[in-house]
Amino acid sequence: MAILLGILIATVTSTDIVVPAYFDPVDSGLTDWNTMTNSAKTVPLTVIMNPDDGPGSSAFGYYKTAIAKLRANGAKVIGYVATGYGKNAMATVQAQINKYFSFYTIDGIFFDEMSDDDTPALVTYYQTLYKFVKAKSASYQVMNNPGTNLAETYVKLPVADRFVVYEDKQGNYGAYKALPYMGNYATTRFVHIVYNVTAAQVSGDVNTAIAKHAGGVYLTNLKLPNPYAKLPSFWPQQVSAVAAKNG
């Protein structure tokens, strides 16, 4: 936000679709990656890649090809790294980060299993990881996933550029409330991921995400235990809904 002549003005930003693409770009998965590549021409996309619960032990050629195509169309690709709610060893997490940037040309890191507890030790843990990524390039995006609202301490420092503050089923989405402090930060800082969504709910849920101060959104009809095994059946509808909101 900006203040001009005493008037509070909201900065206009585009909403992006943040896709947990936890499926390889081979066989049926390749079709979905190609679909995302085409959609990147229409709507901003951030794609979370996850070859092997992290980068794996070596690079995969099919990922290199798929990533290059996505990025050529303007999408951002970030690599999945689990943090075990702050319990995974720092050296292990940093080694996975190094592998991603060694294996692939990507745009940042997605830290899953973020603790929403703001004890000094955990704040230091996530701030250390943030600085580790940013030391490689200030342009790299860091997205953390507590999956729920978190203390402003994390956002203000910051320990990430973006936070997934809602990751849950659609049935609970209406009750979700953004915390008051979030209004002091750009919508781009916050992401909502909603599963078990019906096609009839897509347009309304996109509106809800925007109304609840999220600048990134992902909706899927898939359910637990793995709502990220493929793109949702209503993907074209979701792309159209977000594109329409972006004008």
From TrEMBL:
Organism for this UniProt entry: Mesorhabditis belari
Domain of life (superkingdom): Eukaryota
Any Pfam family the entry gives: Spherulin4
Protein name stated in the entry: Spherulation-specific family 4
